[in-house]
Amino acid sequence: MTRGYLIRRLLAIFLVLAIVTFAVFAITTVLPGNAAIMILGEYATPDAVAALERQLNLDQPWYMQYFNWVAGILRGDLGMSLRLSLPVSQVVGEAFLNSALLGATALVAVTVIAIPLGALAALKRGTAVDLAIGLFSYLGTALPEFVTATLLLVFLAAPNSGIFPAGGFVAPWGNIGGFAYHVALPAFTLGLILLAHISRQVRSEMAEVLSSDYIRAARLKGLTERRVIRRHALPNSLAPAVAVISLDIGYLLGGIIVVEEIFAWPGLGRLLMYALENRDLPVIQAVTLLLAGVYALSNLISDIVIAMLDPRVRYA
Amino acid sequence: MRDFFSSPTAVVGTTLLVIVLTAALFGPWIAPYDPQAFHPIARLQGPSAAHWLGTDQFGRDLLSRILHGAPATVAFGVFATALGVGVGSVIGVIAGVSGGWVDSTIMRILDGLLAVPDLLFTLLIVTMLGGGMEHALLAVAVAFTPGMARIARSAVLSVRTRDYVRAAIARGESGFYIVSCEVLPNALSPIVVEATIRVSFAIMIGATLGFLGLGAQPPSTEWGLMVAEARQFMFRNPWCVAIPGLSIAMAALGFNLFGDALRDALDPRRSH
Amino acid sequence: MTPSLNPAVTETTKPALAIRNYSLSYRTANGIVAALKNIDLTIGKGQTVGLVGESGSGKSSMAWSIMRYLPPNAVEDGGAIRLAGEEILDYTPRQMADIRGRRMAMVFQDPSTSLNPTIRLGEQIGEVLMRHRGLTKVEAMQEAEAALARTGITRPKEMLQRYPHEASGGEKQRVVIATAFACEPELIIFDEPTTALDILTARQILDLFNQLREETNVSALYISHDLGLVSRVVDEVSVLHKGGIVESGRVDDVFRRPKADYTRQLIGAVPNPDRWIGIDAPANPDPLISLETIGVHYNAPTMLQKIFQPKEAEKAGFWGAKNVSMEVRKGELLGVVGESGSGKSTIAKVLAGLQDFDGKLQFDGKTFGSRKDIDRAYRRRVQLVFQHPDASLNPRQTIGTIIGRPLKLYGIVPADKVATRVAELLEMVRLPADYARRHPHQLSGGEKQRVAIARAFAAEPDLVICDEVTAALDVSVQAAVAELLVKLQKETGTACVFITHDLNLIRQLAHRIAVMHHGALVDFFDGPDARADDRDPYTKALLDAVPVHADMEAFDVA
Amino acid sequence: QSATPKPGGILKISHSTRIATLNVLNCSGPAEYPVVDMIYSGLTRMGPDNKPMADLAERWEASADAKTFTYFLRKGITFHDGSPCTADDIVATFQAILNPDVPAAARAVLNMIDTIEAVDATTVRFNLKTPFADLPISTAHANARILSKAALSGPREKLDTTANGTGPFKLETYDSARMVRLVKNENYYIKGKPYLDGVEMHLFPDLAAESANFLNGAMDVMLTVQQADFERITAANGITAKRIPSGRFVNVTMRQDQKPFDDVRVRKALAMSVDRGLLVDIVLEGLGRPAYDNLVSPEFQYAIEAPEIAYDPEGAKKLLAEAGYPDGIKVTLVASNRPAIRAQVAVALKEMAKPAGFDIEVETMSHDTYLANVWMKGNFYMGYWGMQATEDATFKLLLTSDASYEDTAWKNAEFDKLIADARSTTDSEKRRELYAKAQELQLKDTPYIVPIFEDILTASGKGAEDWTIAPLSRYYYVENVWLNKA
Ligand SMILES: Nc1ncnc2c1ncn2[C@@H]1O[C@H](COP(=O)(O)OP(=O)(O)OP(=O)(O)O)[C@@H](O)[C@H]1O
Ligand SMILES: Nc1ncnc2c1ncn2[C@@H]1O[C@H](COP(=O)(O)OP(=O)(O)OP(=O)(O)O)[C@@H](O)[C@H]1O
Ligand SMILES: [Mg+2]
Ligand SMILES: [Mg+2]
Ligand code: NI
């Protein structure tokens, strides 16, 4: 992993982001309707729409809008949200923070649970434990988030059995308990699919590692089973798991859209849906930019982690 | 084949798949009622002799709706995947076979597209096209294309350096023969396996779009939409949410299990 | 060297290992398969016993039984395995874990897979010491360094910090051996420890083993299918055939006066350089194909790189072959030998038109300056057989299709005669005609290799290049394949380039021998002159490394 | 009602749509209205009885010809920032509303104003171009609340996120993604009110999550209850669920300058193919009333009772045949997917009209596409309108030739004249007559099918007293709400 490599990767990310934003801009401008119509809704009169369009600069040709937008970005100004009349950086920034809290909680929890679970399944291959974990994983991957979330709402958060709040957001600063209480269900919903995915990956990788010659060699050296598993088997099964996790972050970024909607989590996913519905172009742009950027960056980080986990992997 | 069915995964997966595909192919004919017909006196009922799976808010028969929705839901997954896999594979094979700058150009573009998460990508395309089933299908297909192209390319690459391909090159075979007779048949299995598993993703994404109001639209009987429509009534009649929800899970599970079993069965390490 | 290792201290009352009437079988989909039958085997203190037998005879199963590390589907059918008199069959897994690595250790065939790729070599040696001798990390590292030093590694301290992929095959095997010897065990099992190494390295490892054995007076079970090699290191030998020991005794006795037919057969399959099996040298030494200053630059720098980063471009890539000139005569068999990575396959690929090259290729009056010039006619007349039969046959085609393809492609016979010709070809390589309908996976390795050869000869070529065609095969099968090749050469008069690292084998077959080293042609001589004094030092080293027991050379089965 | 109000406490209101803007001039979201209603006051305001009541204006006078109106303001009203609210602010506000460069939703009901003048600090005079008796109702328009002159002359975007009103509550935090918090305005013009220390508006985009949070007591008020949930919520312990009959309706737009709806018989046939009672049952869960194509619901002062239209597919079929469609008609009915009621009615209509020979294909699309491509353009689609303040506003919205959303191309000079005459008439009986005639004209021609009137549903939890909504919606009277918590 050389510096040159890192720089090249980062440059590639910028290029990708540039392409993505241009594509999104082009896409959104061919859409019927615009923010002004959406803001005023059915109760607006044509002259009010025209007035608002002028106010929002929507009467300019799209390439001018894009040009202005890019010029703004280069000055560090993401513009104003058309629908919310707030600086995009503020709207998106807050939402991103909230989403990151949710996503990170889900990811960390999932990683912490999924890896041992997958390892356990591999160790107990063919037993009831393996079967149970397998069934759970399969079910996890087959239930779409909106179904899981709905079921959770009915069974765990319904007012009658209200173990958990039915959505809502509490910031963790100074109220970590409240945060944990509110984040539990959405994080679980998000995590379920990833849990299944990662634990299955770890299981198959671990199973392969366990049948490898060097594990056999380690056991024949008389090492304790603990050491064989922790020092020899686990680290070697992790690199592929990390690759999967980074891919799953992409999935997570999609998953938040549904989960945030259902659990009233004020994050990027919901903001994006809202912005799409309202043709709030600057917000759509910023959110896509951010999501794509996060995804690309997480891929880069995962490559770095993999290189750290596995000394054979070298990027130049 | 006997080997294939010796794994429980394969048996369960195939069984689920048969059920789901039967529903998808013959559902509309075996449905006891017109899926749109109202039965105002029997609204929001649980399972009964007259309505085996109960009814929804208009008193429409859920079993009939599920059966009618099967083609929409499953065919959506299958066609979206087929389209994405087809186009993706062609791109991937072209990249893998030609190598050089063609390969690297294609790969750079794919990398760019892959940088956008699947659902986000789909969402953007769907909103661009304005929602609806066909547009959602197209969007899922487009979203699948880069990933599939990658898989196809790597399958081709791994086959391309095999000795039997090199033997064909050394014999002086034409490029067409090499690709169609030596490379493709052997590169196909990872593509098929991935495609099978992706059908389940496609079904889930399709249902999610239906749920978000960007996919199928009323009065369609697509399952995701059915869940969305029934959610308001979930406390009054949990069946009308659970049934389509579980149907989606069943279809996704079926394809998932089947794909996994297929992967195991086709895994060269296992077959030796 | 610690005092306890002094041979005087060891007693010789009880054998280090005694196996009595031991049987083992595996449960498989096709029922129970017996792997070991009524085995009796004794290894005395300080003694080394060899275990030989063809692939699948049960050698590794024996090793696993002793180490008490059997797969879940193994079924033991009684008997006794005693380590210094203690019945280890009754040991709990815990007790076994305690004695593994401490009282008995094992060295595997492939050092590159038996070392954990993500752990530094030092830790992999040290962990045994920490586990069994209760050393601290620092002590363990010092001890590991000493152990490595004993195996002849020049800079042991540095080696401790490396990862497996940063060490060569020989170095890795030394690490494994150092690990095995680390706790001064009573018994070490070697399961084909040199098979995966190239010939020179294997020789060094063998010497190392002999040296350490003398120093430590350890008892050892040495497993190999290579009789020549075993005869070099062991005192006694047991011959295993289909799970049963057919013969055992002092190594000289067994090899000189084999009692069992199977032993005789095994010995017969060992290539003997003095027993010529090739065809007579062709009468007219006209060149068929000649290579002129052939060079192959792998990962060559691109044009852009040359312009913008001239310094780095110079270092970029790797010369797989450089400045190689030689010619192949009509009808002859040219042997190409050299250690692993010396560029043998590179030359084969150039000849087969699979590799871009610098320099010139002359064939039948035509000159080819680059790979792209090579035409269909050339490709028909030069055929290639690969090392791995598994990989060179398309798993999705039938044998008939595979062999029939060149017939159709080059229009060798009319379309309606293809099937007949395929049958003839199968017969030529001594396979039943009905194999045409089978798929490759229904054939054994040797059979697959015959199919590959049949496919090459189907084109009626002038030259067949055989790239280590016997390397992946069992000893006995190796000999048969080599003989088949000779037979075909005799029948068709085709010239052959035979690539191998087995010098004994090549000396039985080749009219002329080319020796390659680090991509260069270092020696080129007539077969009988192999032992001549003016040979290149590298050639001499290769010849010396060949593991043939002095006694065996005198032995002749015929 | 039973107990005397206690001051103090924070009222938590849950809602399911975003409060995207606080700009009272053009806000339109269902959750935006309660917020502006709490922050801002109007010159007048609509009461729960659907009559204009005093707000900043203590009283008003109209000239005999209904062309000049004089409003007299309360004394000593101040904005939340402490600055006084005078006639100048009133004038500035209405001038802004009338300014074509300003997006203002209330312009349509106030465009008869010619000039506004500040007579003195507490007196404002409106001079109208044409007589208009209902001006006090128009000045009560929810988007015609009084802004300060300073705010109006500042950058207009600031109105979206900040607010300086004269209402009972002041803006404290505005987080459109989550929560808007308001605090008591100590200087509200009614002494002792509001009772509450503050109000929080919490956003729950998912309806199930919203009801769950309301039912488990995390929220005090559920702004809008879904029909499907009403029964369950009513049944819950301590919950006061309110059902307020309203003139909110769903309508089927049929363009009359295009086939097949150019023929009144086709429209009538479709009208006969709707089982309105059943529609109320299955779409509204019984929480509404059947409507018989009259845009004006019984709540209106001058509403006539429209004759019942029985569900008669046979008759409809005959009528269709007469109109030249013996084999039925194939049409595509477009519905936006938001709110769900549009698609539900469309789907139900499809089934109900089937026996009559209408082969209706329902095409549901996302709201944005609908707004851009179908609304005001299509020839057969679902509309959905909230109750307007007056008959005049209703007709001027949809039916007169110069209506703001004249989307059926139904033009009737006689109708236009009746509406114009009613405008300038101050005599109540006369107006009743004029409006009755207008309604009959409309019913005769069936420009729209209006199958149902929807009730407004809201609920308050244990301890939240005197919560109510006007049938017009958009008016909430939160200054009267108080918390009766132990
Ligand atoms: N786990 C197992 N299950 C079933 N059969 C097995 C298993 N392991 C080995 N065998 C069979 O037992 C026989 C002996 O195998 P073993 O590995 O001991 O042979 P070997 O002499 O070491 O061969 P090689 O020289 O190829 O290493 C073979 O026929 C093999 O197929
Ligand atoms: N495609 C390639 N790209 C880069 N380097 C290569 C490539 N193929 C071979 N090499 C390198 O070129 C050298 C010569 O390789 P070659 O395969 O000719 O050796 P060989 O003599 O056939 O060895 P072996 O006995 O192991 O088959 C080796 O060091 C190898 O690593
Ligand atoms: Mg073995
Ligand atoms: Mg080679
Ligand atoms: Ni060398």
Automatic annotation (TrEMBL), chain A:
All copies of domain ABC transmembrane type-1, residue ranges: 96-302
Annotated source species: Neorhizobium huautlense
Signal peptide as annotated in the record: none
Domain of life the protein comes from: Bacteria
Keywords, comma-separated and alphabetical: Cell membrane, Membrane, Transmembrane, Transmembrane helix, Transport
Family: Belongs to the binding-protein-dependent transport system permease family.
Parts of the chain that traverse the membrane: 100-123, 135-158, 178-196, 237-263, 283-309
Name assigned to this protein: Peptide/nickel transport system permease protein
Xref: Gene3D superfamilies: MetI-like (1.10.3720.10)
SUPFAM superfamilies listed in its UniProt record: MetI-like
Xref: CDD domains: TM_PBP2
Automatic annotation (TrEMBL), chain B:
Entry keyword set: Cell membrane, Membrane, Transmembrane, Transmembrane helix, Transport
Top-level taxon of the source organism: Bacteria
Domain ABC transmembrane type-1: 70-259
Keyword NAD (UniProt): no
Pfam families tied to this protein: BPD_transp_1, OppC_N
Alphabetized InterPro entries for the sequence: BP-dependent_transpt_permease, MetI-like, MetI-like_sf, OppC_N
Compartmental location: Cell membrane
Membrane topology according to the record: Multi-pass membrane protein
Transmembrane portions of the chain: 12-31, 74-97, 109-129, 135-152, 195-216, 236-259
Alphabetized PANTHER family for the sequence: OLIGOPEPTIDE TRANSPORT SYSTEM PERMEASE PROTEIN APPC (PTHR43386), PEPTIDE ABC TRANSPORTER PERMEASE PROTEIN (PTHR43386:SF25)
Family membership: Belongs to the binding-protein-dependent transport system permease family.
This protein's name: Peptide/nickel transport system permease protein
Organism for this UniProt entry: Neorhizobium huautlense
Taxonomic placement: Bacteria, Pseudomonadati, Pseudomonadota, Alphaproteobacteria, Hyphomicrobiales
UniProtKB/TrEMBL annotation, chain C:
SMART domains in alphabetical order: AAA
Listed SUPFAM superfamilies: P-loop containing nucleoside triphosphate hydrolases
Keyword Nucleotide-binding: yes
InterPro entries on file: AAA+_ATPase, ABC_transp_ATP-bind, ABC_transporter-like_ATP-bd, ABC_transporter-like_CS, Oligopep_ABC_C, P-loop_NTPase
Chief place of localization: membrane
Superkingdom as given in the UniProt entry: Bacteria
UniProt entry keywords in alphabetical sequence: ATP-binding, Nucleotide-binding, Transport
Protein's UniProt keywords contain Chloroplast: no
Domain ABC transporter: 19-267, 302-543
Cellular localisation: Cell inner membrane
GO molecular function (one): ATP binding
Bilayer disposition of the protein: Peripheral membrane protein
Similarity section: Belongs to the ABC transporter superfamily.
NCBIfam families: PRK10419.1 (NF007739)
Protein name: Peptide/nickel transport system ATP-binding protein
Organism: Neorhizobium huautlense
